Amino acid sequence: MKLAIVGSVGVPGQYGGFETLAENLVRYHETEARDIELTVYCSARAYPDRPDRYRSAALRYIGLDANGVQSIPYDIFSLLDAARRGHDVILLLGVSGALALPLLRLVSRAQIVTNIDGMEWRRDKWSGLARWVLKTSERLAVRHSHRVVADNAGIADHVRAAYGPEAEVIEYGGDHAVAPVDAPAADLPPLPDSYALALCRIEPENNVHVILEAFAEAGAPLVFVGNWDRSAYGRELVAAYGTRSNLTLLDPVYDPAALLAIRGGASSYVHGHSAGGTNPSLVEMMHFGIPILAFDCTYNRYTTEESARFFADAPTLAGLVRTPDPDPERGAKLLAIARRRYTWARIGRRYFDLFRAVTRGSAAAPQD
User: Fold this and answer.
1) Model pTM score
2) Topology of the domain covering 2-173+343-360
3) Average confidence (pLDDT) over 338-363
4) Spatial separation of the C-alpha atoms in residues 43 and 202, rounded to whole Å
């Protein structure tokens, strides 16, 4: 079998959920699925050295950015090249390239498996035109893929209600976040002895303002890592909250050892994401075995199996911060869920079982 992975920036993974997924599928392939010939499509602009191989995978480069306005032609060119080269299965990450799927189904016998991501068209940051393009792409992806993967049961519910087909629910792994790091950590800023941690892109849909308002009111220590300077929203929050003695606002941390130290030192994790399905940062933090305060939405409830404490606004979150957790085993419960559901060994096995099933024409879902 020849398998192509299309739609990520590429490997080795540098950032992002799809890049981490592609990276870990390559690692699984290297140890468990060498009978399959694997190619990963990469953005030439992200990898100036452009090696021919990474671990067990062949690499092919497309001279466009994988994100932003170029993501559509990047994915389309990758899909067409993968089909031309006779791949039996193509894993499409995201729906940007779905505009090409009707044509691809006419000219290629490749089996298309699409991870449709997290209903991007619902995100507030998109204009009306962008939302229309994304929703149309999602519809085309579901209609013209042989199998659809949803990373959260809430996404699968949407696919069933809106389009009819049953999606395979395959989440993300998070155990890489607790893997030991050989290199020493870069210098860290002074951190409180005990603190809650939040870590995300600084966007309104991640409820950053809600979290900061709640902790400012409660007076509890919070370390918040994010790209504050990238938007007016982030800069305004720094201006409003940056001088609060209990709030430590850090720029993005890319050093693996430093990030591990910051995560490992936290006494709880605050997750404000309100969109996007199963969020990688949430499943990663579940592996640290600490209590989690999560924004109250379907995705987060599915991901944590209702085992987090949930908030919908700043006053509710402030109340939770002030109140001792009534369940002393909450962190241990979340860790047990993570070890059962969110390991890369399990996720890799389920993806590769699915790839083999579609080449056999099997309708059976991958089993644990």
Assistant:
1) 0.92
2) Rossmann fold (3.40.50)
3) 93
4) 25
